[in-house]
């Protein structure tokens, strides 16, 4: 049987290669890269998705796996400017001298960078990258959860982490996510990380979800919860109609950077 990749044109092969490197490709980015119309790129993406190479997401396409996330170094640069805009918007909603949970994720790490100039924050985190960033401010108190450190992203997970989180009740829980299904289900790849995030949701007075547009409709295997369990979603584009309707019905705030 012939390899279906042999039927792809050179541009489609380049699109697939870019998606494998980055985890996600946007229609806007590809239009500029190849100097073709958005309609042409959509046709290319349809071909790649129909052959099973990629999966359609809001505004583009990405890898198909629901069991394995894009590697950490790739996620650090994926939609970096969008994540920074989201982070700056979140930071404007965090008052001085607030108490926070911040979980694992490249977007939450950008939020930490945006919070460095605040005063008097008390931060509890299971993310060593966040702890390192925020401990540079002497006016902060940074508390690091115990548990097992994942070498790939310096996140801390496990039963000890969950028990530690449960000892606190804070003003804001800032969490990231791997995917938001059309029905509002929040999805991630690691059930141990999910259980920590669930503990954060239960022990924060307000929960702020940070997610760029590539997370809309993205598939992952583990259910974290539902959009109705958070207080606000911070993102960089208007979400698809189904997700927007779910947010409105649950009276969840929507902030678009």
What is the radius of gyration? 19 Å
The CATH topology label of the largest domain is: Rossmann fold
Low-confidence stretches are 1-5
Q: Structural class of the secondary elements?
A: alpha/beta
C-alpha geometry: elongated
Strand order of the largest sheet: 6-5-4-9-12-14-15
| Tally of domains | 2
What is the CATH top level name of the largest domain? Alpha Beta
Instruction: Summarize the biggest pleated sheet.
Output: 7 strands, parallel
What's the architecture of the largest domain, going by CATH? Answer: 3-Layer(aba) Sandwich
Order of helices and strands: HEHHEEHHEHEHEEEHEEEHEEEHE
Write the layout of secondary structure elements.
Layout: H1 10-22, E1 24-26, H2 27-34, H3 38-50, E2 55-57, E3 60-62, H4 72-77, H5 80-92, E4 99-102, H6 106-115, E5 122-125, H7 128-134, E6 141-144, E7 148-149, E8 156-157, H8 159-165, E9 170-176, E10 179-180, E11 185-188, H9 191-202, E12 204-210, E13 222-226, E14 232-235, H10 241-249, E15 253-256
Parallel strand pairs: 4-5, 4-9, 5-6, 9-12, 12-14, 14-15
Antiparallel strand pairs: 1-3, 2-3, 7-8, 10-11, 11-13
Helix pairs in contact: 1-3, 2-3, 5-6, 6-7, 8-9
């Amino acid at each position: 049987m012939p390899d279906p990749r042999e039927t792809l044109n050179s541009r489609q092969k380049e699109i697939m290669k870019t998606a494998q490197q980055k985890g996600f490709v946007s229609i806007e980015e590809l239009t500029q890269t190849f100097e073709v119309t958005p309609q042409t790129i959509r046709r290319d993406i349809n071909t790649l998705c129909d052959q099973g190479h990629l999966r359609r997401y809001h505004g583009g396409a990405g890898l198909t796996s629901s069991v394995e996330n894009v590697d950490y170094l790739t996620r650090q640069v994926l939609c970096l400017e969008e994540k920074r805009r989201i982070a700056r918007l979140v930071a404007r909603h965090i008052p001085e001298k607030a108490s926070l949970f911040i979980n694992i994720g490249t977007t939450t790490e950008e939020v930490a960078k945006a919070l460095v100039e605040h005063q008097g924050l008390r931060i509890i985190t299971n993310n060593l990258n966040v702890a390192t960033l925020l401990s540079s401010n002497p006016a902060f108190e940074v508390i690091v959860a115990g548990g097992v450190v994942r070498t790939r992203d310096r996140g801390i997970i496990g039963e000890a982490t969950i028990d530690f989180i449960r000892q606190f009740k804070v003003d804001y829980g800032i969490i990231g996510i791997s995917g938001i299904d059309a029905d509002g289900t929040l999805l991630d790849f690691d059930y141990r990380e999910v259980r920590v995030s669930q503990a954060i949701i239960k022990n924060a007075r307000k929960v702020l979800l940070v997610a760029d547009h590539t997370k809309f409709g993205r598939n992952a295997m583990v259910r974290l919860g539902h959009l109705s369990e958070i207080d606000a979603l911070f993102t960089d584009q208007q979400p698809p109609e189904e997700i927007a309707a779910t947010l409105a019905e649950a009276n969840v705030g929507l902030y678009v950077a």
